[in-house]
Amino acid sequence: MNKKIRIGTRGSQLALWQANWVKSKLLEWNPGIEIEIHKIKTTGDKILDAPLSKVGGKGLFVKEIEEALFDKKIDIAVHSMKDVPTDLPEGLSISAITEREDPRDALISKDGLKLKELKKGAKIGTSSLRRQVQLLNFREDFKIYQLRGNLNTRMKKLSAGDFDAIMLAAAGVKRMGWKDKITEYLPYDIFLPAIGQGALGIEIRDSDREAGKIVERFNHRETSLCVRAERSFLERLEGGCQVPIAAFGMINGNTIKLEGLVGSIDGKILYRDTETDGENRVEELGVRLAEKLLNMGADKILKEVYGNSVFL
What pLDDT score was predicted for residue 43? Predict the structure, then answer.
């Protein structure tokens, strides 16, 4: 076994927490190995003055890390699965998907008010079109404002009074130890999560069998099946991580239930439905649900959204 493993990650506090968690597990399972963490700045980290949906392209938070993998500057990469495009570069693969943390969206409000209690015209900060469409569908009076930066920056903007509330992934808030700051967890019937939300993915070079063997223990079978179904849904819709698309898979026995959503950016139209299938047909399940929504009218929304994005 290679005595040194180099982990590539973004440099945010949350990303470093995730990389260090992987490091601690590797040390626990492989006593005596040396592990380095390499911080890599991605395009998404560099561009903070524009909505991600307007920056364009896919892989805004992974491309530079993948380049380091190709160049053999790192041995494994740790990503939030919701940031990973469905079309991976040839020669790289997600070797393991970790057990999901809480996949729900979380509301953190300035005055401790829940979503339905916020004042008329409340200012809500988010960087996600997916959250925007579901917020506006829930209450059309909400004013949605662009919110970029790491979790610390976002929390500071809320404390400074820039917003009445902000929306974040519950998983990240919990990993940072800020669970007590969450005002409300949004239920799935109101807010469907992002594809892969709450799960980590470990990416390797296909040719590096040793790295694949080292990280295989991280793979959580149930989470992996659900995330694969969600990503198949997203791939069929040709979506990236910055489009108004949501999906969430749940396992019941040997069956997977996949719920998906496509919404207009003003929140007035939501196409949402579910499909179920066996766990050996997760890719087919995602495609079937995607085509169901496309036939309902989601194709028109996506054609418009791919060329248009509205944030205040």
Answer: 81
Residues 204 and 212 sit within 8 Å (Cβ to Cβ): yes
Distant-in-sequence, close-in-space partners of 215: CB < 8 Å, separation ≥ 6? 26, 76, 95, 96, 202, 204
- Catalytic residues, by residue number, are 83
Residue 7 burial (C-beta neighbours within 10 Å; 0-12, 13-18, 19+): buried
Side-chain-facing half-sphere of 209: CA atoms under 13 Å: 0
- CATH number for the domain whose boundaries are 105-186: 3.40.190.10
Closest CA to 188 of 272, 244, 108, 269: 272
Question: Which residues make beta-bridge pairs with 277?
Answer: 256
* CATH top class, domain 4-99+199-219: alpha beta
Query: From the first residue on, what is the mean pLDDT of each consecutive set of 10 residues in the chain (312 residues)?
Result: 88 95 97 96 73 62 94 98 94 98 97 97 94 96 90 91 96 95 96 97 97 96 98 89 87 96 95 97 97 94 70 36
Please give the single-letter amino acid code of residue 73.
K
Tell me which residue has tokens 């380049």: 67
Q: Which CATH class is domain 235-305?
A: alpha beta
Overall size of the chain counted in residues:
312
Q: What is the pLDDT of residue 52?
A: 56
Amino acid identity for residue 190 in this structure: I
pLDDT of residue 303: 86
- Residue 53 pLDDT: 56
H-only helix segments in 239-298:
282-293
What's this model's pTM, rounded to 2 decimal places? 0.92
Domain ranges of the chain: 4-99+199-219, 105-186, 235-305
Is it true that 4-99+199-219 and 105-186 share their CATH fold? yes
Beta strand pairing status for 165-169 and 200-205? unpaired
Helix (H, G, I), strand (E, B) or coil at 126: strand
